[in-house]
Amino acid sequence: MREDIHILNEKEILIKLKEFPDWEYKENKIKKEFKFRDFMDCLAFTVRLAPICEMKDHHPDIHIFYSKILFELQRFDVGGKVTDMDFFIASEIERLYKENKPD
What we know:
single chain; 103 residues; alpha+beta; Gyrase A, domain 2; 4-stranded antiparallel β-sheet; 3 helices; 41% helix
């Protein structure tokens, strides 16, 4: 395991989730659905997010449903646990969404 990754226990996760409206903790993942205008906006958003995920070597599960994206975050290399890196990526998803929010 990388030294810069901290596995969070359930209490830590629930405390951190208070800073992330509409994100939920379920099945050892944090997750949230985002709405977009259409399929192309969903794809464009994932393209903007991809370099951040690649740079941090942390890749969310991304489920695209025409005009919605469901992001599910957990760290597979530590046994499918939620880590501080998941919350970093969640914050980047939120930042990008606010910058590019559909009308």
